Amino acid sequence: MMATAHPLAQTESSSGEISKPPSERLMSVDLYRGLAVAGMILVDNPGSDDLAYWPIKHAEWNGWTPADFIFPSFIFLVGVSMAFSFAARLRRGESRRKILNHVLIRTVILIAIGLLVNVSPLIGLDVHTWRIYGVTQRIALCYLVAAILVLWTNRRTQAVALGACLVGYWALMRFVPVPGLGVPGHGIPFMDPERNIVAWLDRKLFMGRLYNGVRDPEGLLSTIPAIGTILMGVLTGHWLRSDKTPGTKAFRMLCVGLPVLAAGLVWNRWFPINKNLWTSSFVLLTGGFALIFLAFLYWAVEIKKWRGVWTMPILVFGMNAIAGFVADSLVYGPGYSFNVKNSAGGTMSWHEAAQAWLMSLGANAANASLIYSVGAVLFCWTLLWLLWRKRIFLKI
Question: What is the DSSP string of 347-369?
């Protein structure tokens, strides 16, 4: 891992075409990433898991909340940045094999970071229950697969791969029998929380190490549609690198994003929107949203040049996302793992104690939870601001 700046670069595309390089780093991408980091910290650290406001709680199963758009936005933006950075390295004369070697190293480091984040170093480690899956692990696997496609295929092949991920995953979930249980929609309910092929395989591989006991929201098979999410970002990055006018780029992102989002809502009828399983309808819904939101930011920041002091607090997060993940774990891990004594002589977790204290000061349950969440964001922002002041940007 290095501490350095990481400018978005421009060069030839994986298909060998030379695109007109943008004149500067896309601040709109950094701002979107910064908002995603802040949102991640906000929803990861509620004072109360049950009493928080609806928008900052994840959907329990089918359906969605605003919080469910955060993780796919990260993966989408990795794809956007990949289209820029790989093209820049190819233009500098680096070979595809050299770039792939760096991708492999980066993948291993991201997985290692995820494994370390899954355990608080302050409370020790139980190797028998150490969770293997995680957020950065999923990003790493998506990044690896997408990198191979970007380096050795053209845009049309990447679009076909995107479609194959979504349709193939639906067919897998819908028609492949779950061993010992039956065919979804016949012997067992379709997309039953515990009796589905994704959860079955995760139990076979890592029983006792799963986030929800018998299933995991970052499971192995559900990484397939997540690869579709990153490929949507890659294709968007190719478009942003094109020689079209900025206005055309923003308008067409909007024109693509709206029907993609609508397609996700329509497909929801037959393949429900579900973040835990990262269903294909979820990919379309969140990918469409990402296109629309990025189009708005691109129009506002790159075309209208609405920039100023308001961008700095967001860029503190957006230009140091890896540090943001680590900072989040410093709040999340101890908050759920450290116990303190309560007034009845028992114990409660740190975040529960903070929730109770805020309510004792007069805040209602939802507001107390929100105050704790905002406090977590401010704490992490302060840590990253110290790095910002020194112009230190963690880069793998």
Answer: EEEHHHHHHHHHHHTT--HHHHH
